[in-house]
Amino acid sequence: MKSLYQSGITFALALLCVSSTGCFKISSDARALRDCITQSTAKEWNEEIEIGAGALTLNVARFGLSFVDLDPEVNAVLSAVRSADVGVYRTHGESKQKDFTATLTNADHTMTSRGWDRLVTVMKSRELVVVYVPNNIRSTHDVKACLVVLSGQELVIASARSDLEPLLELAFNRSEWHHKERTKP
């Protein structure tokens, strides 16, 4: 009986640890965005995958990877990301609309009420890409973003929190490298 009790406690603690790392859910802002988009675009969306990696999970991964010889660019990206989650969904029915104006209006309303502003929009006949950021960004060291990609019968919702400075430096260095390569005689 004591062994069963200890096993139960161990299982409960392991479940609490795993669930607190954010492995089984997307953020509440990403969920709100997903719900808004799915309600305004199709009858039924099926979840293909929904996974998140919180700060604890990423810190454990960074610690484990510190023993591996990785490319400096990979280390820069790993050190910059604080949390990330993604959900991929598919519908088998045809979208209710091909004009995403109403979908975008609903998404803007949902995200604005949660303190987010739309930063990027790309809209084509059957494709929509939107990026939202909080309207109170104070520093590039801790920036959140939510992303929607809607293409035909597929929907991707992602969110991330990261330190943008190492990522911007990486992008700047890559553009300098690319520029130098193109201007070689």
Which tags fit this structure?
46% helix; 28% strand; alpha+beta; 6 strands; six-stranded antiparallel beta sheet; 185 residues; 6 helices
In short:
This protein has 185 residues and is α+β, with helices and mostly antiparallel strands. It has six helices and six strands.
**Residue share in β-strands:** 25-35%
Radius of gyration: 20 Å
Count all strands and give the number. 6
Number of helices: 6
Provide the domain count. 1
Ends distance: 78 Å
What would you call the shape? globular
**What oligomeric state do these chains adopt?**
single chain
Main beta-sheet strand count, sense and barrel state: 6 strands, antiparallel
In which range does the helix fraction lie?
40-55%
What pattern of helices and strands is seen along the backbone? HHEHHEHEEEEH
Low-confidence stretches: none
Account of the 3D structure:
It is a single chain. The protein has a six-stranded antiparallel sheet. It has helices spanning 2-20, 28-41, 55-65, 72-80, 101-113, 164-182, and strands spanning 46-53, 81-90, 116-123, 127-134, 143-151, 154-162. The chain contains six helices and six strands, in the order H-H-E-H-H-E-H-E-E-E-E-H. The protein starts with a helix and ends with a helix. The protein has one domain. The chain is α+β, with helices and mostly antiparallel strands and 185 residues long. Helix 2 runs antiparallel to helix 5 (101-113). A hairpin with a 2-residue loop joins strand 5 (143-151) and strand 6 (154-162). 46% of the residues lie in helices and 28% in strands.
